[in-house]
Amino acid sequence: MRAVVLSGPGPVENLELRDIPLPEAPPGWVRIAVKAFGLNRSELHLRLGYAENARFPVVPGIEAVGVVDAAPDGDLAPGQQVAAMMGGMGRAFDGGYAEYTVVPRAQVIPFRSQLPWSVLGAVPETLQTAYGSLTTGLDLRAGQSLLIRGGTSALGYAAAALARDTGATVLATTRQPDRLDALAAHGVDHPILDGGAVAEQVRRIVPGGVDAALELVGTPTLPDTLAATRVHGTVCFAGMLSNVWTVKDFYPIGYIPSGVRLTGYGGEASDLPAAVLQRVLDRLAAGELSLGPVRTYRFGQVRDAHRDMESNAAGGKLVVTLEDGS
Questions:
Q1: Which domain holds residue 298?
Q2: CA 133/CA 128 separation, integer angstroms
Q3: Residue 53 has pLDDT above 90, yes or no
Q4: Are β-strands 29-38 and 63-70 bridged in parallel, bridged antiparallel, or unpaired?
Q5: Residue 251 has pLDDT above 70, yes or no
């Protein structure tokens, strides 16, 4: 089969399209014929050398969508549409950047949809993280206000859609003025231009501070996001668009405003109920929901996709499709 192999940390040239043996699926695992896969920031971190427990060479990719090709346990039929994600994919074992991937059954979620694979490929990991961040991380409720720091990322768009669907008022930031209209068109109530500090702007819109905030940029903006949040409000750290994820000399009492709660979220496939995935796919198909823009690449364009991800050249989700085989 063809696969994209990352030989080691470094530039995009370290992503090499190779012919490698077709992997077998042992008991407890499933082989998936990959139709599309979304790109994620963690795969950029892997390429840049910032990934724990990674082995090289490796086929990257923490998610994929496709159809069951082999399932020794017999509970999934060949041809069944499935999504797979997380649990060591693309780090501890070969992941989704391939024509076939073999993953533990526990990481496989079946679904049924007539949506194009290019659309389906944008959903699994982004939805899992957005859903988990808003529920487990923030316990967001109808009538509350939510600030999304990093609103034009794939996760930002998805979180905004789910939050609006919940009945929350959404504020979302972008560093690029030409993307403010895109946030508004996506249903964001208050698009905010982020010059590095937005707490004052947020508090002019929501006196006293927002009920909840989703930090997707990383630790450089986290103090300002905390400052935009009310007493007994919650900030969930769930993204690292800045590629900076640690706080030097962290002193909690001086760092976290009094009474503001700081949580984090990083989930697995098991944290996305199959019913939630199916419901979202059905609503996408019906035109009742949008998770944001998608930019599609062919399999041979993985390096281009990584360049665009690294330079933040596109808002929304980047998806590689294997439908045309090129």
A1: 2-123+291-321
A2: 8
A3: no
A4: antiparallel
A5: yes
